[in-house]
Amino acid sequence: MLEMTNDSQNSFEDDVIDGLSQVQKTIPCRWLYDERGSELFEEITVLPEYYPTRTETGILSQYAAEIADHVGPHATVVEYGAGASVKTRILIDALEELTTYIPVDISAEFLQTSAASLQEDYPDLHIEPVVADFLSTVELPEKSIKGARVGFFPGSTIGNLKSSEITGFMQRAREDLGAGAQFVLGADLKKDPNILIPAYDDSAGITSEFNLNLLRRINGELDANFDVDSFNHEARWNDDDARIEMHLVSERDQSVEISGKIFDFRQGETVHTENSRKFEIEALEKLIGQCGWQMADSWVDKDSLFSVLLFKAI
Question: Where are the alpha helices (DSSP H) in 74-205?
Answer without folding.
Answer: 86-94, 108-121, 163-177, 193-199
